[in-house]
Amino acid sequence: MPNMRKYISWFLSTLLLTLILTELPSLPASDRLDIANYIPELVDYTLSNGLRVILAKDDSAPVVAVNIRYYVGGANDPEQRSGFAHLFEHMMFNGSDNIGKGEFDAYIEPVGANSNAATAVDYTEYHQVISADRLPLVLWLESDRMASLKITQETFDTERQVVIQELNETLNAPYGRTQNYTLTTPFRGYLPYEREPGAVLKILMLQH
Q1: Most exposed: 48, 81, 87, 95, by fewest CB within 10 Å?
Q2: Element (H, E) at 43
C-alpha cells in the first residue's frame, strides 16, 4: 500500500505539471528573446603567475561582477577534517595583511556592492557585484587575502561555531536533508563525494 500511494502521488504530480505546461501561452516570435544576442564574447587567458582570467563583456549596466574561484572544495577535505573547505571560506573574511577582521565588506558595502561566497564539492568561490569604477578596489581586496590571509586560533574557533550553526540550520530545516540525499546517494561507496553534512557536523564538533 505505501508503494502504491507513492506511485499515485508521483503520477498526479506529473499529470499536474503536464497540464500546467500545456496551458502556458506561447509567445509570438517578436516577443521571444534571441538567446544568441545575450551570450557575451569570452576572453580567456592565463597570467604569468598562473592565474586564469575569463572576461565576459556586458555594457548593459555600469557594473562589474567579479568571481574568484579556487578549485578546492569539500571533496578535498582530509577524511578526519571534513568541513575544512567551508570553514576556510568563512575565515577568508577575517583579516589579512592589510585588511582587518571583518573589514572586507566594510570597504565595499558603502558603495552599494553585493558580496558573498560559497563552498561546493569541487570548488570554493567568492563574488562581488559593484560599480565598474570600483573594480581595482575589489581586485586589491581579493589579492590581499589570497596572498596574506591571517589565521588565528580565535578566528578558527569562532568560525567553526558559525559553520556548525549553518549545518544545523540546513539539517533541521523542512526538507533540509532532501538535497543532501539527492546529491550523495549516487556516490555511496565513493569517498569523498558520499560525505553527508551530518557526518561533517560531528567531525567539526569534535575538533578542538
Answers
A1: 48
A2: strand 42-46
- Total-model pTM: 0.73
Helix, strand or coil, per DSSP, at residue 179 = helix
Residues 96, 149 contacting (CB under 8 angstroms): yes
Q: Which helix (H) or strand (E) holds 9?
A: helix 2-23
pLDDT means over runs of 10, the chain (208 residues): 48 48 56 65 92 91 94 84 87 93 90 89 93 95 95 90 84 71 70 64 60
Q: Report all structural domains of the chain as residue ranges with CATH numbers, in order of start.
A: 35-206 (3.30.830.10)
CB contact burial 64-97 (16+ within 10 A = b; e otherwise): bebebebebbbebbeeeebbbbbbbbbbbbbbbe
